[in-house]
Amino acid sequence: MCHIEILKLRQGDMEGGQNGAKGMAKDIKTKWPNAEITVKTDFFEHAPEVRIFSIDIDATMANPKNAGMFQPGEVAEWVRGYGSRGDDKPAAQKHFAVIQAHRTNMEAERLIARGAACL
């Protein structure tokens, strides 16, 4: 559960940056310069003063200003690969590495909990 919460916070930080004006929302503009990105804000359930940002892919795709700009699934694919591409910014690449490390640790813990791994 700790890994899931860390991932949520880390992802929210990269997606929102400064109230949704930086981070992933800004980096999307490098691929689609004229895109209108919709950023959602939720509050972290364990500390309501902490905001969690996310890209609202459906609202971004549905925005009339973005008509014809994206192919189906293209935004979701870009978001999933954020930080894994060679031309992504160093902060995005570090973010991807941290997310991958947490996912690897989470999977290892699941295997141990199921008794599939020996120490």
List keywords for this structure.
mainly alpha; 119 residues; two-stranded antiparallel sheet
Structural class designation: mainly alpha
Whole-angstrom Rg: 16 Å
Total helices: the number is 5
Unreliable spans:
none
- Shape category: globular
Kindly estimate the percentage of residues that lie in beta strands according to DSSP: 5-15%
What separation lies between the terminal Cα atoms? 21 Å
Give me the count of strands.
2
**Largest beta sheet: what is the strand line-up?**
1-2
Tally the structural domains: 1
The percent of residues in helical segments reads 40-55%
| Strand and helix order | HHEEHHH
Query: In this structure, how is the largest beta sheet organized?
Result: 2 strands, antiparallel
| Mean pLDDT reading | 78
Would you summarize the structure shown here?
This protein is mostly helical and 119 residues long. The protein has helices spanning 2-16, 24-31, 57-62, 74-80, 90-113, and strands at residues 39-43, 51-55.
Question: How is this structure best described in words?
Answer:
With 119 residues, the protein is mainly alpha-helical. The protein has one domain. Helix content is 50%, strand content 8%. A two-stranded antiparallel ribbon has the order 1-2. A hairpin with a 7-residue loop joins β1 and β2 (51-55). The protein starts with a helix and ends in a 6-residue tail after the last helix. The model has no long low-confidence stretch (mean pLDDT 78).
